[in-house]
Design a protein that fits this description.
CATH architecture of the largest domain: Orthogonal Bundle
CATH topology of the largest domain: Endonuclease III, domain 1
Order of helices and strands: EHEEEEHHHHHEEHHHHHHHHH
Strand order of the largest sheet: 1-5-4-3-2
CATH class of the largest domain: Mainly Alpha
Number of strands: 7
CATH superfamily of the largest domain: Hypothetical protein, domain 2
Number of helices: 15
Strand content: 5-15%
Length: about 300
DNA sequence: ATCCAGGGGTCAC
DNA sequence: GTGACCCATGGA
């Protein structure tokens, strides 16, 4: 049975290619597949697990459901998911105006045009990904994530391929720390992930709960009260999951390297200069951080 | 072999 | 509030 394709008009300043570049980079992400300028991804929905396919054609993103429910409600959910994932409903022209005011950054508005801040809607997944990635190189981080997801996540199969979904908190709350250790998670990472999972299951931590807090400092404080969530992790999760503009992952090694490469700071200790720099991008701080990360892939700079 | 990687916790001042 | 130290493990 064929389902009609969902069509989402592409907004101004959107580049499917740039977004694909970010999703594909040089890493082995187990939560989506990129091939032939298209994306395959499986997600959990309130109506059941869904596998979908995205490609760009004629000024639209075309989304097709390949497996799982395709009733109108589920299709609406999927549409919202994609809009949020790629931040499609944000007018990012003001960000480019900010970039062009700084001679060191102006090139980004041209070279990276249409790159959107790719999100991680599920805050539990975002936090787990942070903990996995703490203080290890990204290549290894993606390996750890794959082991975790292939062991504990559900999956859908289609055309002889397997598409994984990040495990939910209930599953990881019951995972044995020893089993995570055997996957080469450090003792700390295993404890942190287990603890965060149990906090979600107990209702002591949730995306909705964090979103309902009155301001950014309150959200940071609520997150960092949990073991394993420091300022970097809290801000990263707020940036990727709730799209809080101030969620700059302070202390991030890549970000600091990019700031040095652009002559913004001379060394990693100049917090005042960093704050002043981001202060000029009020409302667009996380986009600036995201574009600075993007710039690290430009070899001439590194 | 050595340094580093999309940090965090703890403890002393 | 800040800084030193430890943890932990693969990549280059």
């Amino acid at each position: 049975m064929d389902h009609p394709t969902i069509l989402i008009p592409v907004p101004p300043f959107f580049s499917f290619q740039e977004c694909l570049w970010f999703l594909n980079r040089n890493y082995d992400d187990c939560l989506h597949v990129i091939s032939d300028n298209a994306i395959w991804k499986a997600i959990q929905t309130p109506f059941g697990d869904v596998l979908f396919h995205i490609q760009e054609h004629g000024g639209f993103l075309e989304i097709e459901t390949l497996a799982g429910p395709a009733n109108p409600e589920c299709r609406d959910f999927l549409t919202s998911f994609v809009k949020e994932w790629f931040d499609l409903e944000r007018d990012i022209q003001p960000f480019y105006a900010h970039l062009k005011r700084d001679k060191r950054l102006a090139y980004m508005a041209d070279d990276f045009t249409g790159l959107r801040l790719i999100g991680i809607s599920d805050m539990f997944e975002a936090l787990c990904w942070c903990i996995i990635g703490q203080q290890i190189n990204l290549t290894f981080a993606y390996k750890l994530k794959r082991r975790l997801v292939e062991r504990f996540g559900r999956h859908l199969e289609w055309d002889n391929q397997v598409f994984y979904i990040f495990p939910d908190a209930e599953t990881l709350a019951n995972a044995e720390v020893d089993e995570l250790r055997a996957m080469q998670f450090s003792e700390k990472k295993a404890q942190y992930i287990s603890g965060i999972a149990r906090a979600f299951v107990a209702g002591m931590l949730s995306k909705e709960g964090i979103a309902a807090l009155p301001d950014f400092p309150a959200q940071q404080k609520a997150l960092t009260s949990h073991k394993g969530i420091g300022i970097w992790t809290a801000n990263y999760a707020l940036m990727k999951s709730l799209r809080v503009p101030q969620g700059i992952p302070h202390g991030d090694v890549g970000l600091l390297n990019a700031l040095v490469a652009h002559g913004i700071i001379a060394d990693r200790t100049e917090k005042d200069k960093i704050n002043a720099f981001f202060g000029a991008f009020a409302g667009w701080e996380t986009y600036l951080a995201f574009y600075l990360w993007r710039s690290l892939a430009v070899k001439a700079l590194v």
